Amino acid sequence: MSLFSRFMDSWRKYRKPGYYDEFDYHWTMAIDLDKCTGCEACVTACQAENNIPVVGEKEMARGREMQWIRIERYWEGEFPDIKLRFIPMMCQHCDAAPCETVCPVGATYHNQDGLNAQIYNRCIGTRACAVYCPYEVRYFNYYDHHWDSPLDKQLNPDVTVRGKGVMEKCTFCIQRIRQAKDLAKDDGRRRVRDGEVQPACVQSCPSKALVFGDRKDPDSQVFKSMHDPRNYRVLEELNTDSSVFYLKKVDA
Amino acid sequence: MPNIERREFLKLIGAGSVGVGAGFMLRESAKHPTEYLIPHVVAPEDFSSGIATWYNSVCSMCPAGCGISVRTREGLAKKIEGNPLHPVNQGRLCALGQAGLQVLYNPDRLTEPLRQTAERGSTSFEKITWDEGLDQVGERLDLLRAAGRGNRVALLSQGVRGHLAQLFESFMQQMGSERLLHYDFNHPHTLYAANQRFFGEDRLPYYDLQNTRLLLSFGADYLATWISPVHHSLGFGESRQGRPDIRGKFIQIEPRMSISGAAADEWIAARPGTEGFLALGLAHHIVAEGNYQGADRADWVTALADYSPSQVAEQTGLPVTTIVRLADMFVDIDPSLAIGGGAAANHSNGVDTLVAVNVLNYLVGNIGREGGLVFNPEPSGPVSRRRQASYLSMLELAEAARQGEIDVLILNSTNPVFTLPAAAEFRQALAEIPLIVSLSSFLDETTALADLILPSHTYLESWGDDFPEPGVGFSVGAVSQPVVSPLYNTRATGDIILALAQRIGASNAMPWNSMEEFLKDGWRQIYERGDAQTLAQGFDAFWISVLRAGVWGETTRRNTEFTLERSVIAGIGVQTPEFSGSEEEYPFILHPYLSPNFHDGRGANLPWMQELPDPMTSVVYGSWVEINPVTAEQLGFTEGDLVEIQSPHGTVRAPVFIFPAIMPDVIAMPIGQGHHEYGRYAKDRGVNPIEILSPQIEPVTGSLASSATRVKLVATGRRVKLVKTSGMSRDLGRDIVQTTGPTGVEVSSARPNSIPITEVTS
After folding, report:
1. Secondary structure (DSSP) of B374-390
2. Which of A63, B13, B440, B484 could form a disulfide with B549 if both were Cys (CB 3.0 to 4.6 A apart)?
3. Residues of B in contact with A83 (CB under 8 A)
4. Chain A residue with Cα closest to B680
5. Which residues sit opposite B654 in a β-bridge?
6. Which residue has the higher pLDDT, B20 or A249?
């Protein structure tokens, strides 16, 4: 095989959504909108787990908030026949992620677990990924953020504090996934059990609206949820092949 | 019932595998790390670099009493999660509870004892030692006690339960003072009183949301601020999608849509204060249709005669068809449950309203059964219900101060200057008290007026316990233990009280050296009383297992038989709600609601909570006033217009937020912001609507009818930018939140995407 055709082979493979032949795990989240109350416990859980800075009122006013998971709200109808719909929105970990193809330095890539990962020290801050992301879930560090002492004592030692000029976003709590995989390995097990790893948002959810797990395990809770007849993905028409499944809210 | 079954619960408690008592282990090594050249050559046994240790404890960010597990690394607290063994929250925790870390590590904490050096409120303090501070108070108290004038001492605390409450009791008893008050702005006085009248007991029942098929909530924001939000959310999720082929239906009746209103299948706005009429209208229809066949049916027919759906329709402003439909649904869907609280309970007829809600439960047989309301057994440890101060008791305290009857006021983590209306003139009354001592961890508005500050540990550094009210159908006790060693030169509240007890010569009656000792003693009594069902052998093993699990439950359920006294039926009825201010001059009813982020304002000093978008409006860092779009258009207001909200008792200024789900003649404001002190994150931010509330009273309980103030809006001509995270508030056909019919059948996704006029022009 010529060098050229070998190159073309790997190029085609690379261009295929999910260019790994097969993921080791395929981490997936399912969110039941019929259970979600919009309470935002997940938002604070994420702030605490992932060392997300508090940006202050001025930056907030310029739309520079840092919240890897947020609750979006949409009104429907007019008083008195009115409804408010909530939807948690975070990085959808698309298997055909628009953000990955645009990054000029390859700082964002798809890892062997099906996660859309961000390499902070490779990021040069073009912000192109944030422009390409249809879900608007990438957050940019316009400044080196500061924690008033001793609030910095709370910082999670398992997670990097990102510096100025770096893009960041939801990681599905990759530090927890790593730890669970290590534990499974130490245990002499090949695989992580269902329920053994939960991102901070899923762990905290008071109404258990969020479910997380490995899609490759047909017995997992998330596999069942993502095949629920109510399942859909946000902006599915864009073919991003996202890893976050929503279960439709029931209008009774 | 909670998911954890009784037997399983006991098993779990025996098998805990988390740390115990971080307090002692870490104290020496972590307190002064600089004194050790290599601090951890010999590390404490629960301390290994790189590996997290979890401690179970109790949340004290609101009165729900959830269990928490705190993750610590290298002696520092990193994350708070729910304690999975605790039957109230079962591993889950709300945003405010998780932000407890920022109470512990708050840069504005009071770090050592202070004495005010200039006039009160000047906040010029000098540092003193603990002995100086304790001696100064102790001498004063001792003199008063010796002179038999102990009643001139008052202790005002935030609502606490468990052995700390008992310690307060014994201390005040030793002082010879009856002036022990627990004050919380949102204590459900009316709910207790309604249960007292209807069920004959001064206790809350357990509301079994999880197993119900229809929940009718009269004003109770049960998913965000009412009684036990995390437990209710668990029940909500289970009821919605936890049972095969059964989906619980939720209906919310309130003048302004809350989180629970948004989660409901149907949101109904009845005229404020008429929720009780609506409940009785439903009851009338149920009885009239022959759906109630009890022996006392004739009594009910008489009692409900004036509440026919057509009469009630006039009062509530709802169509008769809606009333009839709700009544039929309440009978047909079984089991059903009615709850009441929030704004509906904070009117001049609050108790009547909540009794009317109980009537509904009674008529369809929801009492004492699964999916209905279940009576709780006697709590297994001390609770402080009878000490809960109503608005009227706070006025009495203020009056006593004005009459010069109070020499010393001890404050424990309560902030009445912020949570009482200006009309109560509490601040002015404090000026008449010669010595004010605060045990608060923060310089809040009330503490700023103290002469002496003896700062206490935060809850993550202290020993304590809690017996959640209401329990979960069986009684639960939970121990709170220090998860990190104290950061500063502060002391546990219990230790301060014990130190004062020594100084007034009460060491014989209160012989304990520390709160920890007292707590252990108290739990020994619980153990020895014999009803402690545990697998542990001996008290020490029991104690360790309770600390590991962080929780322990007494498994006796209560006999739930209930017979209603006939005299109660005769007394059923709802008075017309009274509002302060005339309708002509003050056309709007002010609906102040507890912010889910800040609770009664205590969360406002936490940066995470300041930056957490308000769930309904997405506004951060400020206050706002919610106005119906049509009203706003009539008045010519758009979002960000600064308006004056004037009540007969004061004025505040806030920007307008156009809120589509509020009645046209109601305006709503969140409680929590508007601090003048309380640290850098809270200070001078937004306004406090409590300030302008009229001193309208619910006559049965003497509690503040906080939803009964009329206001008018006056334009200032100024505009401000409302900081919020939401952009377009409509879906505009993007189908982001998709919905489906009840049986999973696809329904047309075509829906109205009209944009309100106000939004286009702004």
Report:
1. EPPPPPSS---GGGB--
2. B13
3. 262, 267
4. A148
5. B643
6. A249
| Pair of tokens at residue B446 | 């009330």
Q: How many helices (H) and strands (E) does chain A have?
A: 8, 11
Q: In this predicted structure, which of A149-163, B224-238, B352-366, B375-389 has the lowest mean pLDDT? A: B375-389
Contact B739 A249 (CB under 8 A): yes
Q: Which residue has the higher pLDDT, B210 or B14?
A: B210
| pLDDT tens-digit readout, A210-245 | 999 999 999 999 999 999 999 999 999 999 999 999
Structure tokens at A224: 């069942």
What residue ranges define each of the domains in chain B, with the CATH number in brackets?
A: 6-109+461-489+512-554 (3.30.200.210), 114-184+388-453 (3.40.50.740), 189-374 (3.40.228.10), 588-719 (2.40.40.20)
Radius of gyration of chain A (CA): 19
Closest CA to A172 of A107, A72, A86, A91: A91
Gap between the Cα atoms of B611 and B490, Å rounded: 29
Give residue B25's pLDDT.
Answer: 41
Whether chain A has a CB inside 8 Å of the CB on B81: the answer is yes
The token pair at B182 is 């627990």
Q: B612 to chain A: which residues are within 8 Å by CB? A: 40, 43-44
How much is the ipTM here? 0.93
Query: How many angstroms separate the CA of residue A31 from the nearest CA in chain B?
Result: 11
Closest-CA residue in chain A for B750?
A: A76
The rounded distance, in Å, linking the Cα atoms of B359 and B690 is 32
Count Cβ–Cβ pairs < 8 Å, chain A vs chain B. Answer: 241
Q: Does B213 touch chain A (CB under 8 A)?
A: no
In chain A, what are the domain boundaries? Answer: 21-247
| Rounded distance between C-alpha atoms, residue B108 and residue A170, angstroms | 30
Minimum CA–CA partner of B611 in chain A? A54
C-alpha to C-alpha distance for B559 and B552, rounded to whole angstroms: 21
The reply to whether residue A38 touches residue B725, judged by beta carbons under 8 angstroms, is: no
pLDDT for res B20: 54
Q: Of the CATH numbers 3.10.20.740, 3.30.930.10, 2.60.40.1220, 3.30.70.20, which one belongs to the domain with range A21-247?
A: 3.30.70.20
Per-residue pLDDT for B743 more than 70?
no
CA A20 vs CA A6, A61, A120, A178, A244: distances in Å? 16, 41, 22, 19, 19
- Please judge whether A70 and B613 are an interchain contact, meaning their C-beta atoms are less than 8 angstroms apart: yes
Tokens linked to A109? 């890539």
pLDDT of residue B553: 78
Length of chain B: 762
Structure-block tokens of residue A147 = 């924690």
Tell me how far apart the alpha carbons of residues A189 and A194 are, in angstroms, rounded to a whole number: 13
Least reliable range by pLDDT among A58-62, B4-8, B223-227: B4-8
pLDDT above 80 (res B544): yes
pLDDT class of A17 with cuts at 50, 70, 90: low
Contacts of B144 (CB under 8 A, 6+ apart): B150, B152, B153, B175, B407, B408
Q: Which has more pLDDT, B742 or B400? A: B400
Given a cut of 50, whether residue B365 has pLDDT beyond it is yes
Interchain pair A249, B82: CB under 8 A: no
Residue of B240, B318, B666, B673 to mutate, testing the A interface (most A Cβ within 10 Å of its Cβ):
B240
B158: closest CA among B385, B392, B394, B412?
Answer: B412
Q: Could you tell me the pTM of the whole model?
A: 0.92
For residue A61, give the DSSP letter.
Answer: H
Contact A244, A97 (CB under 8 A): no
